[in-house]
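Quick review question:
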Protein backbone atom coordinates (compact mmCIF):
# COMPACT_ATOMS: atom_id res chain seq x y z
CA UNK A 1 0.00 0.00 0.00
CA UNK A 2 1.28 3.47 -0.87
CA UNK A 3 0.79 6.58 1.22
CA UNK A 4 0.62 10.04 -0.36
CA UNK A 5 0.52 13.38 1.39
CA UNK A 6 -0.03 16.42 -0.81
CA UNK A 7 0.92 14.47 -3.91
CA UNK A 8 4.21 13.25 -2.40
CA UNK A 9 4.73 9.56 -1.66
CA UNK A 10 5.96 8.68 1.81
CA UNK A 11 8.06 5.54 1.52
CA UNK A 12 8.88 5.20 5.22
CA UNK A 13 7.72 6.46 8.61
CA UNK A 14 10.19 9.36 8.72
CA UNK A 15 9.08 10.61 5.31
CA UNK A 16 5.44 10.33 6.39
CA UNK A 17 6.13 12.42 9.49
CA UNK A 18 8.13 14.97 7.51
CA UNK A 19 5.39 15.36 4.91
CA UNK A 20 2.67 15.54 7.57
CA UNK A 21 4.57 18.20 9.55
CA UNK A 22 5.86 20.08 6.55
CA UNK A 23 9.28 20.17 8.19
CA UNK A 24 12.05 17.66 8.75
CA UNK A 25 11.70 15.69 11.98
CA UNK A 26 15.29 16.60 12.87
CA UNK A 27 14.24 20.24 13.18
CA UNK A 28 12.23 19.36 16.28
CA UNK A 29 14.29 16.51 17.70
CA UNK A 30 17.80 17.53 16.76
CA UNK A 31 20.55 15.29 15.51
CA UNK A 32 23.21 13.38 17.36
CA UNK A 33 26.45 15.29 17.66
CA UNK A 34 25.11 18.73 16.73
CA UNK A 35 27.14 21.65 18.04
CA UNK A 36 25.74 24.33 20.32
CA UNK A 37 25.75 26.72 17.36
CA UNK A 38 23.81 24.23 15.20
CA UNK A 39 21.38 23.59 18.05
CA UNK A 40 20.81 27.32 18.53
CA UNK A 41 20.16 27.82 14.82
CA UNK A 42 17.78 24.83 14.76
CA UNK A 43 15.82 26.12 17.74
CA UNK A 44 15.65 29.62 16.22
CA UNK A 45 14.21 28.14 13.03
CA UNK A 46 11.70 26.11 15.05
CA UNK A 47 10.62 29.24 16.95
CA UNK A 48 10.14 31.11 13.67
CA UNK A 49 7.97 28.29 12.31
CA UNK A 50 5.86 28.18 15.48
CA UNK A 51 5.43 31.96 15.36
CA UNK A 52 4.21 31.72 11.76
CA UNK A 53 2.04 28.63 12.36
CA UNK A 54 0.80 28.80 15.99
CA UNK A 55 -1.67 25.94 15.42
CA UNK A 56 1.08 23.53 14.38
CA UNK A 57 1.44 21.84 17.82
CA UNK A 58 -2.32 21.20 17.94
CA UNK A 59 -2.31 19.88 14.37
CA UNK A 60 0.62 17.57 15.12
CA UNK A 61 -1.04 16.33 18.32
CA UNK A 62 -4.25 15.59 16.42
CA UNK A 63 -2.41 13.67 13.69
CA UNK A 64 -0.41 11.72 16.29
CA UNK A 65 -3.59 10.82 18.19
CA UNK A 66 -5.26 9.64 14.97
CA UNK A 67 -2.25 7.49 14.07
CA UNK A 68 -2.12 5.99 17.55
CA UNK A 69 -5.86 5.31 17.60
CA UNK A 70 -5.76 3.73 14.15
CA UNK A 71 -2.84 1.48 15.09
CA UNK A 72 -3.43 0.90 18.81
CA UNK A 73 -5.19 -2.46 18.46
CA UNK A 74 -2.27 -3.95 16.54
CA UNK A 75 0.47 -2.24 18.52
CA UNK A 76 -0.89 -2.66 22.01
CA UNK A 77 -3.46 -5.46 21.65
CA UNK A 78 -6.25 -3.23 22.98
CA UNK A 79 -9.73 -2.32 21.82
CA UNK A 80 -10.06 1.05 19.99
CA UNK A 81 -11.50 3.98 21.93
CA UNK A 82 -15.27 4.01 22.13
CA UNK A 83 -15.62 0.24 22.08
CA UNK A 84 -15.99 -1.91 25.15
CA UNK A 85 -14.20 -5.28 25.03
CA UNK A 86 -16.62 -8.16 24.44
CA UNK A 87 -17.93 -9.90 27.52
CA UNK A 88 -17.19 -7.05 29.90
CA UNK A 89 -20.04 -5.01 31.29
CA UNK A 90 -19.87 -2.29 33.95
CA UNK A 91 -20.96 -3.42 37.40
CA UNK A 92 -23.79 -0.87 37.49
CA UNK A 93 -25.35 -2.44 34.38
CA UNK A 94 -25.70 -5.87 35.97
CA UNK A 95 -22.62 -7.35 34.35
CA UNK A 96 -19.78 -9.28 35.95
CA UNK A 97 -18.92 -7.93 39.35
CA UNK A 98 -22.40 -6.52 40.00
CA UNK A 99 -23.94 -7.05 43.39
CA UNK A 100 -26.53 -9.84 43.33
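Suggested answer, residue by residue:
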Amino acid sequence: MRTYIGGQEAVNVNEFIELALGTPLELWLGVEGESEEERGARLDAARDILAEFPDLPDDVSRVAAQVIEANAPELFNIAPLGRRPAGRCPAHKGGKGAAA
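Why it works: The CA atoms of residues 19 and 54 lie 18 Å apart. Helices lie at 13-21, 25-29, 36-52, 56-76.
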